[in-house]
């Protein structure tokens, strides 16, 4: 089933009108609103309305307050941008290391740079685990990151 561009445009205009007409509705009322435009719009609406604090972060105390701050920090756009830049730098360094190792197979500084990136990835993983609690264990992305960091740790130390 292929969607024609005209159909997609009409659907998005109808979706926008539907959401604009319901601007004054609370998230609870919006969650009861039946959206007939498709699964994608339903998913986007659910994600946009999910501004509530996760259940594992409720409560008082210094530990819970620290986790709330950490949760906001780890799930911020800035954190994602910094993580993305670090990943890009790592990719560049892998390319540079591969190029230099063609000329000199004993590039010593490359192992230290690789360990530094691995340390940053391990810290990111621990921060996400502390912020997300047990709920993060249901995330496929967390397990992918965990696997990559674990393999990197096992490979970098004899």
From TrEMBL:
Listed InterPro entries: Ion_trans_dom, Volt_channel_dom_sf
Record's subcellular location: Membrane
Q: Which UniProt keywords apply?
A: Membrane, Transmembrane, Transmembrane helix
What cellular component terms from Gene Ontology apply here? membrane
Q: Does the keyword Nuclease apply?
A: no
In the bilayer, the protein is annotated as: Multi-pass membrane protein
Chain ranges of the Ion transport domain? 77-154
Q: What Pfam families does the record point to?
A: Ion_trans
Transmembrane region positions?
A: 78-96, 116-133, 140-157
* Major localization class: membrane
Q: Which SUPFAM superfamilies match?
A: Voltage-gated potassium channels (SSF81324)
What PANTHER family does UniProt report for this protein, alphabetically?
A: TWO PORE CHANNEL 3, TWO-PORE CALCIUM CHANNEL 3
Its recorded name reads Ion transport domain-containing protein
């Amino acid at each position: 089933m292929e969607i024609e561009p005209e159909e997609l445009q009409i659907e998005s205009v109808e979706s926008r009108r539907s959401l604009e007409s319901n601007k004054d509705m609370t998230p609870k009322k919006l969650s009861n609103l039946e959206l007939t435009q498709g699964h994608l719009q339903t998913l986007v609406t659910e994600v946009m309305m999910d501004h509530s604090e996760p259940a594992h972060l409720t409560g008082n105390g210094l530990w819970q307050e620290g986790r709330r701050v950490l949760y906001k920090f780890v799930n911020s756009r800035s954190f994602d941008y910094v993580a993305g830049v670090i990943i890009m730098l790592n990719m560049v360094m892998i390319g540079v290391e591969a190029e230099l190792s063609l000329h000199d197979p004993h590039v010593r500084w490359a192992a230290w740079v690789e360990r530094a990136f691995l340390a940053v990835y391990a810290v990111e993983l621990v921060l996400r685990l502390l912020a997300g609690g047990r709920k993060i264990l249901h995330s496929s992305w967390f397990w992918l990151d965990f696997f990559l960091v674990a393999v990197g740790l096992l490979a970098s130390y004899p």
